[in-house]
Design goal:
It is a single chain. 15% of the residues are buried. Helix content is 39%, strand content 7%. By secondary structure, the chain is mainly alpha-helical. The chain has helices at residues 2-9, 28-35, 65-70, 95-120; strands at 59-62, 79-82.
Length: 122
């Protein structure tokens, strides 16, 4: 979801990469949550952070505490940011309740990355 918002809010030509410490595929519920706000992430992929050790990043943003703890060092001179968001993957309840959890996290991510792009990616 963060990747989708950065691609939406960053200046034209900004390259955005996303990766995690594990790869699980893109969650269909995340795809649906983003589709509801007009952002298509259905073609995004689930990549491992190790795939990008040779990329010269300007910024690296971690978005969950477990990723920051499990990957405390990434060989880069990039400016690093951390903003923890709840992981909606473990949401339980009815389909509507689970969708509400995904939508709530999506909306938090929206606010953060809109502000980030405005401050750093113009």
């Amino acid at each position: 979801m963060a990747h989708g918002y950065l691609k939406t809010y960053a200046a034209k030509g900004t390259e955005v990469y996303s990766a995690g410490v594990e790869t699980h595929g893109v969650n269909p519920k995340a795809i649906e949550a983003m589709k509801e706000v007009g952002i298509d992430i259905s073609d995004h992929t689930s990549n491992n952070v190790d795939e990008y050790t040779d990329v010269d990043f300007d910024y690296i943003i971690t978005v969950c505490d477990s990723a920051k703890e499990r990957c405390p060092y990434f060989p880069s001179s990039a400016v690093k940011f951390h903003q923890s968001f709840p992981d909606p993957f473990g949401a339980t309840g009815t389909e509507e309740e689970i969708a509400a959890v995904f939508n709530g996290v999506r909306d938090q991510i929206d606010v953060y990355f809109k502000e980030f792009a405005s401050a750093y990616l113009r």
